[in-house]
Amino acid sequence: MSADHPFRAADTRLPDVSVTDRPDFPLPLRWVGFEGVDLPVVLPRHGRLPARAGARVDLPAPAVKGIHMSRLYRLLDGLTDGQPVTASRLRAVLEAMVASHQDCGTTAAGVVLDIGLPIRRAALVTEGLAGWRSYPVQIRAKLRDGVFRIRMRVTVTYSSTCPCSAALARELVADGFAAAFDGDAVDPAAAAGWLRRHATLATPHAQRSEAEVEVDADLDDLMPERLIDLVEQALGTPVQAAVRRADEQAFAALNGAGQMFVEDAARRLRAMLDDRYQAPSIRVRHLESLHPHDVVAVAD
C-alpha cells in the first residue's frame, strides 16, 4: 500500500480496540494467529504450488487485548513473491513477526505450510506408462527466544496385507489342495490347473494405509521428495497411479512379499530413517478391511 493511498490516512482515524481496550481476563496466551490461508508458494525443483498457510505469535503481555493479525498476514504474503521457500527465508519471516509484535511482548512465532506435492510416478512394469500422485507435505517453522527449528512431515499412502490373514488363507488353500488330491499322485499340470481355479479359495485381507513421517528439515535445502522416496522404499507397496494388468500383477506380488502388521510398518520406517534424519517421528494407520476401525502405531 503506497503512502498516499486513501485508506492509509484513514487508518489513523479508525478505532483500534485491540490497542485501546483491555482484556476482561488479563492472562498470557501461548499462541495467537490464523490458519487455512490460501498461499501459493514456490518449492525448489517443483515451481509454484498451492498451499494452505498459518501464522502465529505468542502473547505473553496479559494486559494486551489482541495481536496485529494484519501484520502477520502481510509478512506471510511476502512468501508469494516467486522466490523459492527456504529455511533461511522462513526464519527471516519469523524474526520479522516477532519484531512486529514487540508491543505485545512477543518472543515466539510460527509458520505452517500445507502443500500438495505433485510427483509423477512410473508404472511398475509397463514401459512408458506413468501417472501423477499428490503427496501431502507440511512444513512447520518455529522461532522461540531466538532458537529456530523447522520440521517437515510427509504423508504416504500404501497397501498393507495382513500376515495373519495370509497365513489363515494359505491354510484353507492347503486343506483344499490336500482334499482334491487325497491319496493320488500329484501331476504337476493337474496341480497347476487346480491352483488356477482354487488358489483364491481364501484370500488375505489388505487395506489402504497411511504413513505420516516427520523429521527435522535440512536448514539449507527443503527436499520433501527425498523423504517421500525413502518412505516408499521402506514400505515397498506404495499405491499406484497408472496401471495395466501386468502392473496390477506386479503390485499383487509386492503385497505378497511385503506382508506387514501396523507394527512392522512403523519399525521398517524407523529403521530406514534413523541414520538419515534427526528426530524422526512416525505414525502409521491401517484402514482395516476386516474391522470397522483403524489400527495405528507410533514410533519416536
From TrEMBL:
<dbReference type="Pfam" id="PF02649">
    <property type="entry name" value="GCHY-1"/>
</dbReference>
<keyword id="KW-0378">Hydrolase</keyword>
<feature type="site" description="May be catalytically important">
    <location>
        <position position="162"/>
    </location>
</feature>
<protein>
    <recommendedName>
        <fullName>GTP cyclohydrolase FolE2</fullName>
        <ecNumber>3.5.4.16</ecNumber>
    </recommendedName>
</protein>
<comment type="similarity">
    <text>Belongs to the GTP cyclohydrolase IV family.</text>
</comment>
<comment type="pathway">
    <text>Cofactor biosynthesis; 7,8-dihydroneopterin triphosphate biosynthesis; 7,8-dihydroneopterin triphosphate from GTP: step 1/1.</text>
</comment>
<dbReference type="InterPro" id="IPR022838">
    <property type="entry name" value="GTP_cyclohydrolase_FolE2"/>
</dbReference>
<dbReference type="GO" id="GO:0003934">
    <property type="term" value="F:GTP cyclohydrolase I activity"/>
</dbReference>
<comment type="function">
    <text>Converts GTP to 7,8-dihydroneopterin triphosphate.</text>
</comment>
<dbReference type="InterPro" id="IPR003801">
    <property type="entry name" value="GTP_cyclohydrolase_FolE2/MptA"/>
</dbReference>
<dbReference type="GO" id="GO:0046654">
    <property type="term" value="P:tetrahydrofolate biosynthetic process"/>
</dbReference>
